[in-house]
Amino acid sequence: MTQPPRPHPITPRQNAWAPRLSRRQLVLTSLTALPAFNSLAADPERLRIGYQKSSTLMIFLKSRGLLEKALAPLQVNVQWHEFNSGLPLLEALNVGAIDASADVADAVPPFALAAGARLTYYAIETPSPQAQAIVVRKDSPLTSVAQLKGQKVAFAKGAGAHYLLLEALAQQGLSIKDIEPAYLSPADARAAFENGSVAAWVIWDPFLAAVQRQSGARILQDGAKLSSYRRFYLAATPYAQRRPDVLAALYAQLQAAGDWIKKNPSQAAEWHAQVIGLDTATVEAANQRRSYRVQPVDAEALAEQQRIADAFSQAHIIPRRVQVNESPVWQPSATR
Question: By CB distance 3.0 to 4.6 Å, which of 30, 104, 197, 284 could disulfide with 108?
Fold first, then answer.
């Protein structure tokens, strides 16, 4: 792994606050209860990381102990906490239960910011628009997004899939009011999809690759020309201000992990399949659609965050307009 770049201090900006989304709704959906939730004081000698099953790069570092080795010279221990979706992960980040998040879909940060979260952007994965899609069953009569009008569609609220659906409907002159939303976790959505309770499902990899290969699901529309699907890495702003050296080490490890996975696709898929319990071919298909290229957060990425936030506020899905540029952005002093 490469040596971490020398950190560049972040400059905090004033955060805009709004009435908070239900913390119970956001947090209690996590698969893993956090014992640290009862203690909100951050510990400078430990890095608590939240991740999901789709967090390939973080899972890679976790499974091989690479981050622990990189942070040993800084005398920082690592603790790992798994979540089943991005919204409770970022809420845990906001209330001080964890210090940094693995990647979350591009639609997730605007939801958290609308709830008043104090978050710092520290990295992105470059666009992977085909890594999420609207799918229908192989025997479905639906052949276009326009035909979703009046249909029941499953997706995770606040996920990148949510934004993809908004954009796909808008392209056809429709809105979220023209369908019947079914806000479901990936596991519940797949069950509903396969038993015919919903007409379509909006989902991301590796769940997308799994339902394609195992059930023959057919893609109605992917993110191409609709949603670039960058994945964002965030940290609690107080932690980012106090430990930019830790973020620098984490950033370097994520870059190196992404490089290794793209340069070794078969070996990476074999490793990842064992970790998440899917077959190797499915994981390799999913990995081909993800860029895994970790880069600094740039103006283009933040501009897209603003477009996503505006789309949600205009649709009255979040309670107010979010100003993304009020959130701090950590930048490494040098990148490859």
Answer: 104
